[in-house]
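Filed under: proteins

Residues; backbone shape codes:
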Amino acid sequence: MTINHPNFGAMAPSRVIIFDTTLRDGEQSPGFSMNIDEKVRMAEALSALGVDVLEAGFPAASPGDFEAVSRIARETKGMVITGLARSSANDITRAGEAIRQAERKRIHTFISTSPLHMKYKLRMEPETVLDAVISSVTLARNYTDDVEWSAEDGTRTDIEFLFRCVEAAIKAGATTINIPDTVGYAVPDDMTRIFTAVRDNVPGADQVVLSVHCHNDLGLGVANTLAGVRAGARQIECTINGIGERAGNAALEEIVMAIRTRPDANPFTHSIETTRILRTSKLLASITGFDVQPNKAIVGRNAFAHESGIHQDGMLKNAATYEIMTPESVGWQKTSLVMGKHSGRAAFRDKLNALGYGDVGDNALNDAFRRFKDLADRKKIVYDEDIVALVDDEVVRDHQVIKFVSMDVWGGSKTKPRALLELEVNGETKSADETGDGPVDAAFKAIRAIFPHQADLLLFSVGAVTEGTDAQARCTVRLQEDGKMVDGQGADTDTIVAAVRAYVHALNKLITKRARTEPEALSA
């Protein structure tokens, strides 16, 4: 049956709305917080990817979240911009104010409905919860005619009480009903049973969009999501790279490629431009400092790699023997060797466009091109992955408080390790000369001398962007201060320089996060 939705009009029965919550549920992951500029960059990338609905944040959580949602609402086009709100009047009012300037907008309000949550988390009786459902949706309709209501911990809710809550939300004006598997407890059969029961037993359920939001605690997030869609859900809530609370959310890239690759089992349509998936995944990894694991479906670096002789033989004869989708369909490039030291600025810009960096500003482009030339002089071969690493390294640091300027290091088995470091802090160049147990330790001590802070170093890791002894190193640094944890990332052919860039990146994120206040309670 066709559904008439306020933001999507008459929806074909096979149409599935892609609701991305990378900037809200995804950002709640420890260490994954983003500053406002980074959120806007991700929002623009998600719009280009073809996302239908963007959950931009939790406006009542902090002034920073409110500002981020407001700015995305003003500046980002093409998507429905959503603000999350608990059932309280203050939350809903803040969400309404934050999304006010969006060309298309939605408020997403929620309350827990399971016996466990109502008793121990809310300490509310079921009838009081039911009243809160009605009042919250009614208030949200004062700000927009597109209101989504969620039954937090819906898959552990008594089914008869779930019917009552969903019916009440629909009567109060909700246009989307979300039944989340908040704690990743469900299996596919549960999702089929719950969504089928809601469709069959709740008056008006056939006139609203049912939504599925699955966490991945048992590794079933994507499977549960697709089961919900096959049972009638027509909105999928997901995140890039599957980031999110605990074990994460259902991964957008896995869901949309499952639909594309298996239309026989999933006969649905969506708006995602799949060739932009890898680029969006890499942007998120660069901003957050968290790379996906090599064997991650779709976007892991081994997703289209073949080492087994049997597999290689089959691939040479026919790629379909071992690949169910083409690398190009999700944004991977077959040709890696592309640029060298004789390449000019125009060729470099063209390459950036081909890699999905059409919106890089002039300052970032100039800095990236300078670093590319330096890299080309040092490396025999410059790969696409090298360019992505150095451009992301520049772009994510644009407009930061602290910037890397230069560094010299001395070390060896007979020499006391020493680092002479220059950083730009609020536009002023400062330097420090420090020694340490090793060159990395000396360099990190120099950073602390230039910019004193009390953050603890929890993690320092090094990986290679490409193969070979001249490969760029990609370093990750994790800092913690007063319970706030951030990750920074840096890339360079010099591992020590990459380490310093990663530390500076983490410090900039920590500076941004110092003023951030976490919400009291978080939604599914």
Remarks:
- The mean pLDDT is 88.
- The chain has 16 helices and 18 strands.
- The first strand starts at residue 3 and ends at 5.
